[in-house]
Design goal:
The protein has about 290 residues and is of the alpha+beta class. It is built from nine helices and eleven strands.
Length: about 290
């Protein structure tokens, strides 16, 4: 096993598994918290489990996503004919969550969330949020957003929202040992556009199909084809820039983690880059 083999595995995870490398700034989910766990076993086996806690208004819940990477993963699901390296947990009782929320806001009379069987008090005092550095958006007067309430709750109840060892090991062999845990690190979102060049024949078929279906507003085939080819060029340019600057293997965090795994020595994790996994660094998360 080499460090480069580990980095190659991380860099190409979106090819092996469904979806992109873990996205902290995903527009569907307000980032709340993160944690990174590194595991090592015998026979050069290794695994990484990245925890991402977020509030997804579209799903109507606070979701703990566990993203897995490694060379010995087990119990993986399938989606869209690809392996799925993600497992999700609902730390808050859903009946309780629905009783305490109204759309994307906390109900004025909401008193607590039931998190893994524990009653966690909710706060409606604006000053408490200001003191914690949480700026209330108040899209409606005197309302507190679910993500704002969660960010305040996490200051004193973080462990309740974290994955348990049983949850972490769902897709990791039980004999692997946890050798490194990070509550913060320097991270870059990495997303490759899967678009590939369309054959001329396929392009014509696509045009004819959509023309019959919608009329395409009278757009001629030549204009349709030109727009498609321009999009392919832009996607190719995007992918090259993403690969060079944002893939895990291109920067310090994952290079150091690869060294930790190969040597089985967590003291090799000595970062120089400032961590940025706190939600305050990802203002566009949940923006849609």
């Amino acid at each position: 096993m080499t460090e480069q083999e580990i980095l190659d595995k991380l860099d190409n995870s979106s090819i092996e598994y469904y979806g992109s490398f873990v996205e902290l700034g995903h527009p569907y989910s307000f980032l709340l918290d993160t944690r990174l766990n590194v595991f090592r076993g015998d026979n050069d086996r290794w695994a990484i489990a990245v925890e991402k806690l977020g509030y997804n208004p579209r799903a109507g819940c606070i979701l703990l996503e566990i993203h897995y990477y490694g060379n010995c993963l087990i119990n993986l699901g399938n989606y869209n004919k690809q392996l799925l390296n993600e497992y999700s947990v609902l730390p808050i009782d859903m009946d309780n969550f629905e009783e305490t929320t109204d759309g994307e806001a906390l109900k004025p009379d909401a008193k607590f969330w039931l998190v893994r069987g524990h009653q966690v008090p909710l706060t409606h005092t604006k000053q408490a949020y200001a003191d914690a550095g949480i700026e209330l958006q108040e899209y409606e007067p005197d309302t507190i957003g679910v993500e704002e309430a969660a960010r305040l709750v996490l200051l004193t109840n973080r462990d309740l929202f974290r994955a348990t060892d049983n949850e972490l090991y769902k897709c990791i062999p039980a004999d692997l040992k946890k050798i490194l845990v990070l509550d913060e690190w320097f991270h870059k979102d990495f997303f490759l556009n899967p678009t590939s060049a369309m054959l001329d024949e396929h392009l014509r078929q696509t045009y004819e199909f959509n023309k019959n279906l919608t009329g395409l507003g009278g757009v001629a085939f030549e204009s349709f084809a030109q727009a498609r080819r321009m999009y392919e060029i832009q996607a190719d340019t995007w992918n090259k820039e993403e690969w060079e600057t944002n893939r895990p293997g291109s920067y310090e965090t994952w290079q150091l983690i690869a060294k930790v795994i190969v040597t089985n020595d967590p003291t090799h994790y000595k970062p120089t880059l400032q961590p940025n996994t706190h939600w305050i660094h990802w203002p566009d998360s949940g923006s849609l």
